[in-house]
# Entry
Amino acid sequence: MTEPPWLALAREMQAIAQSGLAFTRDPYDRERYQQLRALAARAMAMGGDPAPIEALFAAQEGYATPKIDVRAAAFDADGAILMVREVLDGGRWTLPGGWADVNLTPAENTAKEVLEESGFVVRVTKLAAVWDRTRQGHGPSPFAACKLFFLCDIIGGSATPSLETSEVAFFTEDALPADLSTSRVLPHQVRRMFAHRRDPGLATEFE
# Structure
């Protein structure tokens, strides 16, 4: 999936406005950056109501950087990968994960997400990939994001759905679910995790 050029432009305008508002002390520059932020919201709304988007942008503070999303590729003893159904995405399947929280390392965030969403305790063993969300072909998003995929060993726990997930299951590479939550994971990303499990010596992938 290729996002439209206007979306990339709107995202860049928002980032410039956010960073400018974080550092400027000039009241006239502040007004200009606020106008730029409003233009970015209008561009992203593309004829719809820009107010919700502008409110979303206004809540972002500090220098604009990509957000961090962590995903866990945890395998059982037979080599099947752990997946969960996301309640917020109509019950579509994804690798456990989510936005990284502050005061936790990426690996700690990954283990936390797995436990919360699936009930399993994991040990993170390898950073398999660092992928830019847009370059990978995910659907449109107002913010840039880097997606960190970690290989994990399951060391305890049991399958337990949560408020965020309605089902927990394992899938082999040749029987992955068709209804993936593609805003979170894509089929080729999941398949690359199987490749990294087969060959732990593979280099970390990026871009």
Notes: The two ends are 16 Å apart (CA to CA).
